[in-house]
Amino acid sequence: MDSYSERFDAALALAASAHANQKRKGGTIPYIIHPVHVSVILIRHQFSEEAVVAGLLHDVVEDQGYPLADIEAQFGPAVAEIVAALTERKREGGQLRPWEDRKQEALAHIQTASQDAVAVKAADALHSVRSIASALRRQGVSVWDSFSRGPGPALWYYQSVARLAGERLAGHPLAGELDRAVRDLAVAIADGTPDRGKHGGR
After folding, report:
1. How much is the pLDDT for 125?
2. If you placed Cys at 153, which of 57, 134, 149, 178 could pair as Cys (CB 3.0 to 4.6 Å)?
3. pLDDT confidence tier of residue 193, bands split at 50, 70 and 90
4. Residue 104: inside a domain, yes or no?
5. Could you tell me if residue 198 is inside a domain?
C-alpha cells in the first residue's frame, strides 16, 4: 500500500477508539498495540490496503460489537468481508460458546476465506504467538492464568492456523514466518522457564 492512506488513518482512529478501554491479556498494555502490529506485519509483507485496513479492524466487531455494516459503509465491502471471516461468534443465546467450538469454527472459516483474510489471520496469529512466547520466557507458566485454555490447546490452535496458512498462502514468506514462530512457542512451552534463569536474559 502507499506510504500514506486516508483510509488507513481512518481505520487506525476507529480501532484506537473502539479498543480504548481494552488491555492485552494478563497485563496493562493497551490492546491497540495488537492490531497495529498486525497491520505492520501485513505492510512489511506488501499485502493490499484492504488487508492492512482489515488488520487494524479485525477485532472491533468481535470484541467491541462495532457493526459490520458500518465497516462496510466506511471502508468498503472487501474490508468488511475480511473482518467478517475473522470474527468469532462468541455467544449464543446469551451464553458464551465453548472455546473449542469457536476455534474449530474459526479454522473452518480460514479454509474457505479469501487469501487476504488468511493473510490477516496469519499476521494476527504471528503477533499473538510471539507475544505469548516472549511472556513465557519473562514470566513463566503464570502467563496461562489469563487464558481460557492452557498451553496444550493454545499450541494446537496456533499450529492449526500455521498449517492452514501454509496451505492457503502457497509458500508465502508470511506463512513461513508464522510456522517458525509457532515452533518457537512450542520450545518456550516445553521449556517453561523465565529468561532470567536458563535463558540467561535472552
Report:
1. 98
2. 149
3. low
4. yes
5. no
Residue 169 covered by a domain = yes
Instruction: Say which residues have a Cβ less than 8 Å from residue 49's Cβ, sequence separation at least 6.
Output: 1, 2, 5, 7, 8
HEC-encoded secondary structure of 67-115: CHHHHHHHHCHHHHHHHHHHCCCCEECCEECCHHHHHHHHHHHHHHCCH
- CATH number, domain at 38? 1.10.3210.10
Phi first, then psi: give them for residue 91, nearest 5 degrees: -125, 150
Q: Is the pLDDT of residue 129 over 90?
A: yes
Domain count, the chain: 1
Q: Name the more confident of 38 and 65.
A: 38
Task: Say yes or no to pLDDT of 170 above 60.
Answer: yes
Report which of residues 100 and 28 the model is more confident about.
100
Give the cell for residue 181. Answer: 514462530
With b meaning 16 or more CB within 10 Å and e meaning fewer, what string describes 137-153? beebeebbeeeeeebee
Residue 108 lies in a domain: yes
